[in-house]
């Protein structure tokens, strides 16, 4: 969706989850849709010729192995799967499968996205391996941690983006590629959008039970329901339940249903329309039975992608 906003023609996708593929097809009607693991997709010898003529190949390898709220190192090398019944996979190697696909298709540019946790601790060794893999695939590559709030997205969301250009398309000194012209300027400085700008009269689910009792005892300065719980009961429960004030930007929308964002001013979690606005999804997006919060929380905000795609077009592809 972000590439379409930037004026690109998106021709296809590869998706392992049939439910997500169904949702993708319902909203985008792609010319090509391969519902299979990337491990088999990258080894196909019957791919259409059009896939070997791409301007951009974009991918977001599953990132839970590197998430700061996950098990991180404990899960590296283990087979895992998401909740929709996909085949087991070793998630921390999927990035390299994606680069292998890029090596095969040889698009002009390859974009890959991942979580901030990829840059922290022991995970940094993966970054070095990723850079080596891009180089072996025939690409110059750089990466940057980007903040969605600075890119016109009304939500705080930090993501790492790798952007690579095929070596034969750049004739200058590699050291100049990301520092001087024709460098790719990935600095964004838009003013943050506060939550009151997207808040809706529509209410989400109403708080009940203990969560409601704690919410009613909130005080200025409380940002989590656990702040209230600790003050009232001396316990740190509800640590993933966030209290959203209108004067501040929206917290990061996460996929988990156990991590709600709650209005500070009223005892309701965010409504569907607020989730759509915060995630920069259109109001008529078809979720095909999926929870909007789950899909939005798993996605790069379309406007964030559109900003990157526009920079790629203006600074690289037009050259």
Query: For this structure, what is the CATH class of the largest domain?
Result: Alpha Beta
Oligomer: single chain
For the largest sheet, list the strands in their spatial order. 3-6-8-7
CATH architecture assignment of the largest domain: 3-Layer(aba) Sandwich
CATH superfamily of the largest domain: Vaccinia Virus protein VP39
Which strand-content bin applies to the residues? 5-15%
Q: Give the tally of structural domains.
A: 2
Percent in helix: 25-40%
Question: How would the global form be characterised?
Answer: elongated
CATH topology-level fold name of the largest domain: Rossmann fold
Spatial extent as radius of gyration = 21 Å
User: What's the helix count?
Assistant: 11
Q: Helix- and strand-based class?
A: alpha/beta
Largest sheet: 4 strands, mixed
Q: What string, H for helix and E for strand, traces the elements in order?
A: HEHEHEEEHEHEEHHHEEHHH
Number of strand segments: 10
Distance between the termini: 24 Å
The chain-level mean pLDDT equals 89
Uncertain stretches: 67-73
Brief overview:
The chain is an alpha/beta fold and 319 residues long. 30% of the residues lie in helices and 15% in strands.
Descriptive overview:
This protein is α/β, with parallel strands linked by helices. It has two domains: 2-190 and 300-317, Vaccinia Virus protein VP39 (Rossmann fold, 3-Layer(aba) Sandwich); 195-295, no CATH class. The chain has eleven helices and ten strands. The protein has a four-stranded mixed sheet, covered by helices on one side. It has a two-stranded parallel sheet with strand order 1-2. Strand 4 and strand 5 (89-90) form a beta hairpin. Helix 4 packs parallel to helix 5 (124-137) and helix 9 packs parallel to helix 10.
